[in-house]
Design a protein that fits this description.
Length: about 400
């Protein structure tokens, strides 16, 4: 997969005579699967479906050996909880290959890890564990981008000290007994790292999006969302009650058209001006590997007086000369992004997320976000893990000096 280079981004600030900012067509190339791979993939999928219907027919007449896949009959008078094809897919396709998924690991998620051995006696419907360990399995699915989720006693010494002093968890929200000095230290460090006025941390990355977007926009507002945005962004947009319009992935012409129509036509039926227009994009789209065209998005949001919500979940810590994400990658001023969001589950080897920006924004979210009111705070050991990693990335813990002098 080839990502678009920074020098491919058009940084045109002044629009041409026809009023459009961007005439140049954006070319983003990805490695395409060979035709024979596509053909055999769909062929195998079709064969699985055909055999699935055959197995259902055999179950009906008692010829199928696996009886676990039968529909449960004790609630036959109830409306089915799942759709018919979802049940069909689970019974006849997913369960056939379930042994390849959900494998419990029993080691640090490094480049290689250990798996718990398990066997099934009923065609993958249930498992029993043998007590043996499968060692040195190649890790192809971890978010441990920078390798900070290790178990080195020396590097985790500060985390151990915080665990002994504060305990394992807070067991309260920020508005009750969950406000701690470690969380304040973390928020101050995040704001310093991102070069913004303030930051607020949440205990879950997914909830950072799904609970904070509804606090920013609501009925009478418009959300313009990239078609490849993460599920957490989509859920947050839907929960907000705002009108949602989707633009083609990284297509600035399509985004500008939607912005122009929104400004000219206003809300449906009444044609009143939208209360807010919020553009939601990601820094790096995790499934495609593409990078947002941030300079152009910022130029458009300035031209049409919209707001920008940037999800840096997969880019913070790993992109940019000093790991400060796509804002630094493109050399943009952090102030130009109205709402910056990121997670600690990838580069930082921890959990949780943050919202950062102007102090007024963060103070507003502290008093209106469901994450602040109803979710338990990040545990102090997790906060310390994030702090030590962020200091290491920033070089403020002395490791950068050691590296430059060849002693690290």
């Amino acid at each position: 997969m080839r990502m678009a280079r920074a020098d491919q981004v058009v940084k045109q600030q002044n629009g041409p005579a026809n009023g459009s900012l961007y005439r140049r067509e954006y070319k983003e190339s990805f490695e395409e699967a060979p035709m024979h791979i596509l053909v055999f993939t769909y062929l195998c999928y079709g064969i699985l479906i055909l055999f699935g219907y055959l197995r259902d027919f055999m179950r009906k007449w008692g010829l199928e050996q696996c009886h676990m896949a039968k529909e449960r009959e004790e609630q036959k008078d109830f409306v089915p909880l799942f759709q018919d094809f979802e049940n069909f897919y689970k019974r006849n396709i997913y369960m056939r290959i379930r042994d390849s998924f959900n494998r419990p690991i029993c080691s640090v998620p490094g480049p290689q890890f250990d798996l718990m051995e398990r066997v099934t006696d009923d065609y993958n419907w249930t498992y029993r564990y043998t007590g043996k360990v499968i060692k040195d399995v190649i890790n192809m699915g971890s978010y441990n981008y920078l390798g900070f989720a290790e178990n080195s006693e020396e590097s985790l010494d500060t985390v151990k000290n915080v665990l002994e002093r504060y305990g394992a968890g807070v067991c309260s929200t920020r508005h009750e007994l969950g406000q701690m000095d470690k969380l304040q230290e973390l928020e101050d460090l995040v704001a310093k790292f991102l070069k913004v006025e303030a930051a607020m941390v949440c205990s879950m990355g997914f909830a950072t999006n799904s609970t904070n977007i509804p606090a920013l926009v609501g009925k009478g507002c418009l959300i313009l969302s990239d078609e490849l945005n993460h599920t957490s962004l989509i859920l947050g947009a839907r929960l907000s009650g705002a009108t949602i319009r989707v633009f083609q992935h990284n297509n600035m012409q399509n985004l500008e058209k939607l912005l122009r129509d929104a400004v000219v036509r206003g809300q449906p039926r009444t044609h009143r001006a939208w209360k807010k227009i919020l553009i939601i994009v990601e820094g790096i789209y995790s499934m495609e590997g593409s990078i947002v065209r941030l300079p152009e998005v910022i130029a458009l949001k300035k031209k049409y007086k919209a707001y920008l919500y940037l999800d840096e979940a997969h880019s913070i810590g790993a992109v940019g000369p000093t790991g400060r994400g796509v804002v630094e990658y493109f050399g943009m001023d952090p102030v130009e992004v109205d709402v910056t969001m990121g997670t600690f589950t990838k580069s930082f080897g921890a959990m949780g997320g943050y919202i950062a920006g102007k102090r007024d924004l963060v103070d507003y979210l502290r008093n209106h976000s469901h994450s602040a009111f109803y979710a338990a705070s990040i545990s102090p050991p997790i906060a310390e893990q994030i702090i030590r990693v962020m200091k290491c990335i920033m070089g403020s813990d002395g490791t950068l000096t050691e590296l430059l002098h060849g002693t690290c």
